Amino acid sequence: MIEQRDELPEWTDEERSLLASASLDRPPAGSLPRTLHAATAAALASTAAASSAAAVGATGKAGAFLGLAKPLGVVKWLAIVALAGGTAVGVEAWRSGRIGRHDVTAVTAAAPTSGEPGAAVASPSAPPVAPEVPAKAAPTASAGASTAAPAHGTTSRAGVARTEPSAATQPDLTRDIATLDEARRALRAGRPRDALAALNRYDSEAGRSGALRTEAEVLRIEATAQSGDHARAETLARAFLKRNPKSPYAARVRALLPP
Amino acid sequence: MTEVEEPFPNPPAIAPVYAAGTHDRVTELVRSQHDFIWRLLRRLGVPESSADDLTQQVFCVAARRMGDIAPDSERSFLFGTALRIAADSQRAHHRHEQPTEVLDDRAGSWPNPEEMLEARRRRALLDEILLALPLELRTVLVLFELEQLGKREVAELLAIPEGTAVSRLRRARLEFKACAKRALLKAAHGKVSP
């Protein structure tokens, strides 16, 4: 496959045998369905927010600070769909003890999220190796809401040693969606303080680099604006736009700025 | 201003159409790349007990970014994300964490328990050796030797010139050999439990 392999140091039989042993390691049966479920739920949540951005764009800039509630309906509608699906499956699997989620110690998705300059990451020209994002703990110490989203298929097989799922250490997309939905509901109902409280909870549960971090950030800007602290909202919005000029949320955030 | 309850702004007209393309792309991506990412995370040092969760994280990040990812950059994006997550995972877990042993009963390709045990012992050694390599070399080795990718693809994934990829592979092989020698010696002296 590569010409230069000839010039490379040759493997001994023992080394080959070591390398070949990697083929022993394969994802368990339920892994793909669980990932599929989690990823499609994340896409749905993200799509909902993007639709909302489009709706905000349509309402125009005038009166954007006051007109926040209207377009949030789309987000809510879709988030509820996502949440309902995730929760139903999660609960079902949780009850039957088939959830294959394991202890995860404080690892968060350190990859760029939708708010960050897209081209740099999506293009192969950006060296993807550099782990420039610091590792961050994602303590998820929520009690009741631990219906882990991804949970299709059977996971434990005979002879497969598994760690029991621990509610305190699981990243929980369903819970995070629910928290953000709560923030949206509060915003829609004109309760910015409650929205901010939900967002604070999201930050502490999912961490600053949680999977829905960008959505949370945008909601925080909107809630701050609705709370009447326009100066603070404007500062946050400008900082967001500076960091994320190409984000799908940019239009939504820009619409919040005074003309 | 009094808030007026608006009806939903016709969500079915916007959302499902928007979502359909994304949903299909996400589904296709998960189906085609799931096992690659899972194996990659494992060989980059993610313990078995976390591999599922971190694989999900990789795809969730990609799903959220789908609109920003060019269709021909999807694998590259997943790869870059997986590398970062693996690096974070390694910082979070210490290397001395005991790997969770998983008995493989799937393939039926292990005619007897002794052979399976031996294969598992080798895999534990492999992980130990790989973990001893710097991430940069480990990544190249895993892609070339275990995933059997071509030099061009490896270079593209790592965003480095092909020549650099090959020279890294050379260093990786040498380093692997040295580590393997030490690990095998250690195992022979019974310091590594099977």
The total count of helices of chain A amounts to 9
Q: Count the helices of chain B. How many?
A: 7
- Output the CATH topology of the largest domain in chain B: Arc Repressor Mutant, subunit A
Query: How does CATH name the architecture of the largest domain in chain B?
Result: Orthogonal Bundle
Q: How many domains would you count in the coordinates of chain B? A: 2
Quaternary structure classification: heterodimer
- Share in helix of chain B: over 70%
> Which structural category do the helix and sheet elements of chain A fall into?
mainly alpha
Shape descriptor of chain B: globular
List the helices and strands and how they pair.
The complex is a heterodimer of chains A (259) and B (194).
Chain A: H1 13-20, H2 31-59, H3 72-95, H4 118-122, H5 173-188, H6 192-206, H7 213-226, H8 230-243, H9 250-254
Helix pairs in contact in A: 2-3, 3-5, 5-6, 5-7, 6-7, 7-8
Chain B: H1 11-43, H2 48-65, H3 74-92, H4 113-132, H5 135-146, H6 151-158, H7 162-188
Helix pairs in contact in B: 1-2, 1-3, 2-3, 4-7, 5-7, 6-7
Summary tags:
heterodimer; A: 259 residues; mainly alpha; 0% strand; disordered N terminus; B: 194 residues; Rna Polymerase Sigma Factor, Chain: A; Arc Repressor Mutant, subunit A; 2 domains; 7 helices; 71% helix
Short description:
The complex is a heterodimer of chains A (259) and B (194). With 259 residues, chain A is mainly alpha-helical. Chain A is built from nine helices and no strands.
Write up this protein.
The complex is a heterodimer of chains A (259) and B (194). By secondary structure, chain A is mainly α. Chain A has one domain. Helix content of chain A is 50%, strand content 0%. Chain A has helices spanning 13-20, 31-59, 72-95, 118-122, 173-188, 192-206, 213-226, 230-243, 250-254. In chain A, α2 (31-59) runs antiparallel to α3 and α5 (173-188) packs parallel to α7 (213-226). Chain A starts with 12 loop residues before the first helix and ends in a 5-residue tail after the last helix. Chain B has 194 residues and is mainly α. Chain B has 2 domains: 14-93, Rna Polymerase Sigma Factor, Chain: A, CATH 1.10.1740; 111-194, Arc Repressor Mutant, subunit A. Chain B has helices at residues 11-43, 48-65, 74-92, 113-132, 135-146, 151-158, 162-188. In chain B, α2 crosses α3 (74-92) and α5 crosses α7 (162-188). The radius of gyration of chain B is 21 Å and the shape is globular. The N and C termini of chain B lie far apart (71 Å). At the A-B interface, α1, α2, α3 and α4 of A face α1, α2, α3, α4 and α5 of B.
